[in-house]
Give the backbone structure.
Amino acid sequence: MTRLQRFLDETLAPGAIGALPAGPALVIGADPAEAYALPEEREAVLVQPFRPAFDALAASGRTVVPSLGEAGGGSGGGPVALAIVHPTRNRRETLGRLAAALERLHPEGLLVVDGQKTEGIDALLRQIRKIAPPLAVEARRHGKVFALRPDAALLEAAGGWAEAARPRRNQAGFTTAPGMFSWEDVDPGSALLAEKAGPALRGRVADLGAGWGWLAAQALANEAVTAVDLIEADHGAIEAARQNVTDPRARFRWEDVLRLGPEAEGFDAVITNPPFHQDRRARPELGIGFIGAAARILKPRGTLYLVANRHLPYERAMESHFRNWEIIAETPAFKLFEASRPIPPSGGGIRHRRRR
Ligand SMILES: C[S@@+](CC[C@H](N)C(=O)[O-])C[C@H]1O[C@@H](n2cnc3c(N)ncnc32)[C@H](O)[C@@H]1O
């Protein structure tokens, strides 16, 4: 049983101090690993912007939406009785989620917050305690869960939290929101890729993990580019990209790169600054998965341009998925790969040849 489920089932059991109120529930940042101990008769909307987790929740038959804008409140847009919030690693984004939950919560409702230490749950709880004492707090399995009533002090603080979390123009003049990758300014790795590979692009281009669209916008500055597919798993980021990139050659796809098939693809080039972190842990297998996806969706004569932090071990994946690859630019922090002649997934009888 998870920490949250035990809290809902036992700490907030009927008759207990913050017993779960009846009525609709809203879960922000829903986790596919949680059952939420929500009785079948409780109407519940789960919000999950990250496509792989969204797909997992939808596959289990639950009502899931990608954004708060689509969550409404309870039936007919009324307030919810129970709001459950999972924090993210970005404090402003987390507080924005709390504000959104408080805004939709019935005055007699209950707000439950459950998160890991790695997501900053301890610091969040310290901040909340200065405003309103939680009804109950439990620490278990490297994390904490606590419950709050929507009292006046919290509601007042929520106004500032919502304001701090809302999308705004960043230093590059693009609309972004806290929590998106490199939301305050252009990532230097992406800038390296745009500078060195941008002029070489032509035809149909895919930007894998396109974020809020800066790199795709640079690719579109090249007139030899006929189309750019921005493929991104974070719903907020792809919606920001839609606002930022108004070129008619752009197509916006809220999809999981790791599940892209070869069907109907056929790109002349793939550009990517792949994800390398999840939950604060380095996850090189994400970038390795992106290299495999690029090989699947490229035309036989297509080219991949991938930028990565220098320490990330992508060379073996390049070797397995491309007949030719080389590092075409390096800085103290980044390396830029160019790879061509993708090896078909079966790989049958192909000699690996490395050009360096
Ligand atoms: C290092 S960031 C690069 C973002 C953007 N291209 C830029 O240069 O600022 C990697 C991006 O990949 C996205 N991402 C992570 N996992 C993904 C997946 N499985 N499918 C699609 N996008 C994913 C992240 O949300 C993030 O926006």
The first strand starts at residue 25 and ends at 28.
